[in-house]
Write a structure and sequence with these properties.
Elements (H helix, E strand, L loop, with lengths): L2 H12 L12 H4 L7 H7 L2 H13 L5 H17 L4 E5 L12 E2 L1 E3 L5 E3 L3 H5 E2 L19 E5 L6 E3 L2 E10 L8 H19 L9 E15 H5 L2 H6 L24 H16 L4 E6 L5 E6 L2 E2 H21 L2 E4 L13 E9 L12 H20 L1 H8 L20 E2 L2 H12 L37 E3 L4 E3 L9 H27 L4 H15 L12 H10 L7 H4 L6 H9 L5 H55 L2 H40 L4 H29 L10 H6 L2
Parallel strand pairs: 1-8, 15-16
Antiparallel strand pairs: 1-2, 3-4, 5-6, 6-8, 7-8, 9-11, 9-12, 9-13, 9-14, 10-11, 14-17, 16-17
The structure holds adenosine-5'-diphosphate (ADP) and magnesium ion.
Length: 729
């Protein structure tokens, strides 16, 4: 008898929402309470130090040792006033999540006592003994050292008793070992390239920022139910479980009233996020039962990425104090929607211009079209790479399934913008004319000025949709570090803007007026980027065929998709923009393949254990009970009648025998397949073997387990079912 399952279900139902005490103040008063932001820098640092630091933050000016010491001193004072006793370099290795190693502020004072010490040297650079982070071979030589180095563009913050310092993580030889270093390089590249292009329109622009507004989707599951599911505990997703009779078909969860216990969790989470300077704004129920979303106001991309990493760890922590576990896995449950992390992306200038926002004048709109069309070109040329940037063993479950973005990257522009593009493409140079107007010219692009009055024009199936003043990259996974996608996207756009600038300048040098040159190149790009534009249903089979005809990347195998990072055009793009070298790309791919293999390996092991310890024993026990019943019927009824009465049970006995046999045989076969795959030395080939031979077996075995779940006595079933995991809250 499965008492555990009933006990945890009962307890889950009884769990009362936890009281969340609102801080006495309003959010505006406690916002960034634990962040060493400019206001605190100004208060805690000597004026000269403050000015030097701001220069470093805004313009990347180098910091001298003296200044760093001054900053460290002020930071320490501020952090200690908040009760901090430790500090840590907080970095983002090539795993999920962040890494930190805490050190206390204490030092010997030389007189037999202790004092609190924190120097500029400790702030700026450290050498964590981090040899067990994935590095793809870059650090397996004798030079195994890795350094963490302070990123002054993201402010330090205090969590519990620790001062956290955002850092990059790099090898002694200079290669990036993390997500942040390449992202910073990509942001610098897109800044430089975009400023150059901006200057055709606005010569005063000095800096262009990339912005990111992420939307984090997640599931909440009661902690007792979670603990009773070894698959959730060890892999983050359910490896078996039949769909509940009701799931999301009534569409009654999306935007529905937020359950009380969940609301308490959200409130607590939001307060803590705001205190850490994360501008969280939106919360709602998502499509699947027990699925929710949290979104902040968009921020500068590097900061937004840090904030997303911080929010994910905060969610895990806060969920536990409310008796929940948060599931960030992209596909925790079969048959209901998975979770993504839409990444809303745009570019904007230091003068306050949103480069993805249409303007009021034709010139502003030409600038807008310039940036949109260059983005489309970048996405078109690197669509395979962008897919690789969001691909993982976990996100693979989501892409291409009938709910989330399809496994082909395309872009939806909306009817108005599409019409404007078509007009541009089909009009002659004269129509677009260089006639009268404010600056001596008028751009006859009729649809553009009214653009985006209507931005309700949406296509939910598009993986890269234009949504009024930004692009929304919807294929990013809920568990992912968005830096991966943002690095690829910003680098690709940077490369594209450089190419654009060169083409326009060449025309100008050949005597063409600036506006005519811009329009000529834009028109060419509108035509060349056409393959990426798609406004139809991204899930249809016709689109798959059409996309292949258009030459878009249609690969669906996760380990093979990683190859896109090593395609010559990707290497060229990353190298010319200074974001990553071929060596770094190769090392990272080793990590990706290895991670893929390990994830499937763990799932296969867990499923094997579930089968042997839970599924088969319970099914056999139930079967034995039925056999007993059949025998007993025989003993009290005449044979013919007994046969008739036990026919149903005999069929179930038979079905259990067949399914358990299938399951056991396939678990054995899966072990054999693993043995074969494990012998493969090459990481790519091994990952492909796991993808092709082992991952499908997980599904085949699951099919029979789920069928057993339907016929075995509910009281005997040990593992919490979907109806419990998804509907208890
Ligand atoms: P939805 O797409 O679900 O309608 P919202 O309208 O709430 O979502 O916006 C999603 C995210 O897009 C938010 O984080 C928001 O701040 C962000 N966003 C809005 N404008 C921009 C922009 N110009 N650049 C980047 N992100 C933006
Ligand atoms: Mg959105």
């Amino acid at each position: 008898m499965s008492t555990l399952r009933f006990r945890v279900v009962e307890k889950a139902f009884q769990t009362k929402p936890r009281e969340v005490k609102s801080p006495a103040q309003r959010p505006s008063e406690y916002f960034a309470k634990y962040v060493f932001n400019r206001e605190k820098m100004f208060r805690y640092l000597p004026t000269q130090v403050y000015e030097k630091l701001v220069d470093a933050m805004d313009h990347g000016a180098p910091l001298s040792r003296d200044v760093a010491d001054g900053v460290a001193e002020g930071m320490k004072r501020w952090a200690m006033e908040l009760g901090a006793t430790h500090y840590t370099h907080w970095f983002q290795p090539l795993t999920e999540g962040t890494a930190e190693k805490h050190d206390a502020f204490v030092e010997h004072d030389g007189k037999g006592g202790m004092m609190e010490e924190f120097s500029g040297k400790l702030l700026v650079q450290q050498e964590p003994d981090a040899s067990s982070f994935p590095n793809g071979g870059i650090r397996n030589t004798f030079e195994a050292r890795g350094y963490s180095a302070w990123d002054p563009s993201s402010p330090v913050f205090v969590v519990d008793d620790t001062l956290c310092i955002p850092t990059v993580f790099i090898a002694y030889t200079g290669e990036s070992l993390d997500y942040k270093a390449p992202l910073l390089k990509a942001l610098r590249a897109v800044d430089k390239a975009a400023v150059e292009v901006c200057r055709y329109f606005n010569p005063e622009v000095k800096k262009v920022m990339a912005y990111l507004g992420w939307e984090q989707e997640y599931f909440l599951v009661d902690e007792g139910l979670y603990a009773a599911r070894p698959d959730l505990l060890l892999t983050g997703r359910t490896l078996m479980g039949h769909e509940a009779s009701k799931n999301q078909q009534l569409e009654d969860h999306y935007f529905g009233a937020i359950p009380t216990r969940v609301a308490a969790f959200m409130k607590d989470l939001e307060i803590q996020a705001l205190e850490l300077g994360i501008p969280v704004k939106t919360r709602h129920n998502e499509v699947a039962p027990n699925q929710f979303e949290l979104a902040p106001i968009y921020e500068e991309c590097n900061l937004a990425v840090d904030h997303n990493m911080l929010v994910m760890s905060l969610m895990r922590k806060v969920a536990r104090t409310h008796g929940f576990r948060v599931l960030l896995h992209e596909k925790p449950f079969k048959g209901v929607n998975g979770s993504g992390k839409h990444c809303n992306w745009s570019l904007g200038t230091d003068t306050g211009i949103g480069l993805m926002s249409p303007g009021k004048t034709p010139e502003e709109n030409l600038r807008f079209i310039t940036f949109v069309v260059n983005t489309l070109m970048a996405v078109c040329r690197h669509n395979g790479l962008l897919k690789a940037s969001i691909m993982s063993a976990t996100n693979a479950h989501r892409l291409g399934a009938n709910e989330a973005p399809p496994a082909i990257i395309s872009s939806f522009l909306g009817t108005q913008l599409s019409r404007a593009f078509d007009h541009l493409e089909n009009s002659s140079a004269d129509d677009l004319g260089i006639l009268e107007g404010k600056h001596g010219m008028k751009l006859d692009i009729p649809q553009i000025p009214e653009l985006l009055i209507d931005n309700t024009d949406r296509n939910r199936t598009s993986p890269f949709a234009f949504t009024g003043n930004r692009f929304e990259f919807r294929a990013v996974g809920s568990e992912a570090n968005c830096a991966s996608a943002m690095t690829a996207l910003n680098a690709a756009v940077a490369e594209q803007l450089d190419l654009f600038k060169k083409e326009v300048d060449d025309l100008i040098a050949a005597g063409e007026p600036k506006m005519a040159a811009l329009i000529r190149v834009i028109r060419k790009y509108v035509r060349e980027s056409k393959p990426i534009r798609f406004d139809g249903n991204g899930y249809s089979d016709e689109w798959k065929a059409e996309a292949a005809r258009r030459g878009l990347d249609c690969e669906t195998s996760c380990p093979v998709i990683f190859d896109r990072y090593l395609a010559p055009e990707s290497i060229r793009m990353f190298e010319t923009t200074g974001v990553m070298t071929q060596k770094e790309l190769e090392a990272r791919n080793e990590v990706k393949w290895e991670t893929y293999t390990k994830k499937i390996q763990i799932e296969a092991r867990v499923l094997g254990d579930l089968v042997m310890n839970h599924i088969v024993p319970v099914a056999i026990e139930y079967q034995t009970r039925l056999i007993d019943n059949v025998y007993k019927l025989q003993s009290i009824f005449p044979k013919e009648k007994a046969d008739a009465l036990s026919a149903e049970n005999q069929a179930i006995i038979c079905q259990i025998a067949e399914r358990t046999t299938y399951i056991k045989e396939h678990v054995d076969a899966m072990i054999e397949a693993r043995k074969v795959a494990n012998k493969i030395a090459d990481e790519r080939a091994k990952a492909i073997a796991y993808h092709d031979n082992i991952a499908p077996m997980l599904e085949q075995i699951r099919y029979h387990i789920d069928k057993l779940e339907l016929i075995v006595d509910d009281q005997m079933w040990t593992l919490p079912k979907y109806r419990e995991l998804l509907f208890v809250r």
